[in-house]
Write a structure and sequence with these properties.
mainly alpha; two-stranded antiparallel ribbon; 11 helices; 2 strands; about 65% helix; globular; transmembrane helix
Length: about 350
């Protein structure tokens, strides 16, 4: 399979592309796979304060196959195709709709958070219900957006930033490995579906399921378009310092919650679209590199870790356990992002 240059990461020099036929030892290829398998569920559910520290390990064990499996499959699909971050982001969006619409069906279940410490968010969610589908556009933006940023993109960015430049656009697994991860993901998703269906006693309507399935298929189809695999010439344009890119992402995250209701959703969508367009514009410049990708991909994770102190976990926990979890989130986030930045500066 081709592994051409990533139009967003800036891996455009011929020296950065892997030599044809070179295959790394199995141990070196599996290490980032295992890291992504563990990091994705932690980023998805723990990094923003959703669980106290004593729940971190169960999250990794029970949600790792589903979240980690999805992150690996998305990353490997893009890299096997020789595609870059546009494909990864679109596939991440498809996963977000698949997860929230078909697996745990939180997108359609108005009672989904009633048995958690987030039951008071129901009124805000119902303020943006789409007639006929009974889906909250506010929740849809939050659920799918968090899966894009936290579950998929941030973990992939972090793991790839620790790798040598020539390894970032390369696949880690062959067909047998992908088949194993695919089975792991399916089993993990079935486990969560059956557990939540039994616990919540909810099943979305046929119309809702069909709607979610059509959106997933459409996003996957767009993600697999050949245009994302074509190498484009880098343009001589000014690219801001990576920290300014991170500040843009943080401001978008903060601005998305400024206003409730339909106005808030419209503002959130406008900010996300404008930021995405601006990052796409910057990334076509010849000064855009992996440090820009690292900051753009992890600014949302850093913001989530900072706000973890202000939000409660899903289930009631002792103040000591909740605080310990928040401190652990800070330490892990700083270690990962700081370590990746140091690695790239070397």
């Amino acid at each position: 399979m081709p592994t051409g240059p990533d139009p967003v990461a800036g891996d455009h020099a011929a020296a950065d592309r892997p030599a044809a036929g070179v295959r790394l030892p199995l141990r070196r290829r599996l290490l980032p796979v295992i890291a992504l398998l563990l990091l994705a569920p932690w980023a998805a559910e723990c990094s923003w304060g959703g669980f106290a520290i004593d729940d971190f390990l169960p999250v990794l064990i029970f949600l790792g196959p589903m979240y980690g499996g999805a992150a690996i499959l998305i990353r490997e699909t893009a890299r096997h195709l020789g595609a870059g971050w546009p494909t990864i982001v679109l596939l991440a969006a498809a996963f977000g709709v698949l997860q929230a619409g078909l697996v745990d069906q939180s997108l359609f279940n108005p009672d989904y958070l009633d048995d958690t410490q987030y039951a008071d968010t129901r009124a805000a969610a119902e303020a943006t219900l789409v007639p006929g589908l009974d889906v909250s556009l506010r929740q849809a933006f939050d659920y799918v957006g968090n899966h894009i940023v936290l579950t998929i993109c941030a973990p992939i960015v972090l793991i790839e930033s620790f790798l040598a430049p020539e390894r970032r656009p390369r696949p880690w697994l062959g067909r047998p490995g992908l088949a194993v991860v695919g089975v792991l993901y399916l089993l993990g998703s079935l486990l969560i579906f059956s557990d939540i269906n039994q616990d919540k006693g909810f099943l979305a309507s046929r119309l809702q399921l069909a709607f979610a399935a059509v959106v997933v298929v459409a996003l996957v189809a767009v993600a697999l378009l050949p245009r994302w695999r074509r190498a484009r010439p880098r343009r001589a344009r000014r690219v801001p310092h990576p920290l300014w890119v991170g500040l843009l992402v943080v401001l978008v995250r903060l601005g998305s919650d400024l206003t409730p209701g339909w106005a808030g959703v419209a503002l959130a969508l406008a900010l996300a679209g404008a930021a995405g367009a601006l990052i796409a514009y910057w990334s076509s410049g010849n000064g855009w590199g992996q440090r820009h990708v690292l900051v753009a991909g992890t600014a949302g994770l850093v913001t989530a870790a900072a706000f973890a102190y202000l939000v409660p976990p899903y289930s009631p926990a002792s103040p000591a356990a909740a605080l310990a979890g928040d401190v652990a989130v800070t330490v892990i986030t700083v270690a990962l992002v700081g370590g990746a930045w140091w690695r790239l500066r070397r």
